[in-house]
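Technical annex B. To support the medicinal chemistry partners, we prepared a structural model of the target in complex with pyridoxal-5'-phosphate, based solely on the information shown next.
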Amino acid sequence: MRRVYNFSAGPAVLPEAVLEKAASELLCYKNAGMSVMEMSHRSQDFQNIIDKAEADLRKLMNIPSNYKVLFLQGGATTQFSMVPLNLFKNKVVDFVHTGVWSKKAIAEAKRYGKVNVLASSEDKNFAYIPSLDNLNISKDADYVHIVQNNTIFGTKISKLPDTLGKPLVSDMSSNILSEPMNVEDYALIFAGAQKNIGPAGTTIVIIREDLITDDYLEGTPLMLQYKIHAGKGSMYNTPPTYGIYMCGLVFEHLLENGGVEAIYQKNLKKANLLYDTLDGSKMFSGTVRKEDRSLMNVTFASNSEELNKKFIAEAKENGLVNLKGHRSVGGMRASIYNAMPYEGVKALVDFMIKFEREN
Ligand SMILES: Cc1ncc(COP(=O)(O)O)c(C=O)c1O
């Protein structure tokens, strides 16, 4: 068996040490005599697992005590509904529109209220982050929604908008834990686990307590109420137990390796290596504005569709897989999440240089 370098945008690469630990505990978790997969979510063993996962995430992100951490299901997409259903009071939201994921969240929010798009980069197929200075925040906005890292287009918001005191909601599905963030800058953070944290099936929500109220839109299903999940320690129903366990292993692994600051330095090194290669290449170029480049999803292309195809196919033969760009951008995308080792990016860069020489 040979493991490849997997540049998938998600589900994505996980730290090998974590996979090995999970494998070693697969049949029998500690003294439980069973796999975590087989364990009641009401057992003490599982309670310890979820408590430690939460405690470790709190340590990693320095999450203040007035924020709740929820381990939910339904992916980040369910948050596109849960957020308006729970936060809408005036039924107005301000959006920064930076790609497919804001588009989907906008469509969902529109089902429940009014959406104002304050800034958009749709005019250039989302290849940049629009200016977020002096946004015309709506007086009656219940919150402002941003997608902090645009997985498909390869851009990231580096400087947060001034929301004039309105709660800031951030979709961090593809960049959570990739660099230091100040949780207090946000009212609510959500992320599907399957990019930077763990397997698909778990969704992390970090929500300021004052937003957890009984005042949700009429008809909101119990499963979509933050209050229900917060009140039951994420166990209103059977949570995604194995996924939470895996997330916990990843958190532990990050803490053992210097936490978010250390992984950020590694991420910078990886991204710089790849972007410098793109900038020095005559064949390939990055597809987004330099100052808006993502640390996690690097989008690039040659000037020929044929060469792109050839590159992707030959890269695969060389153990560098899932480099095809999203259909809305074309070209290539290398997702270099926390768990992608430097050696993986180095192998990609070496292959790019060789490919350019030979073609
Ligand atoms: C930024 C962002 N938001 C939301 C989603 C949707 O996540 P899910 O498939 O977990 O619903 C994705 C998935 O790729 C994403 O990258």
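Notes passed to the chemistry partners:
The pocket of pyridoxal-5'-phosphate is lined by residues 10, 75-77, 101, 147, 151, 171, 173-174, 192 (CB under 6 Å).
Residues 258-358 form a domain with the Aspartate Aminotransferase, domain 1 fold (CATH 3.90.1150.10).
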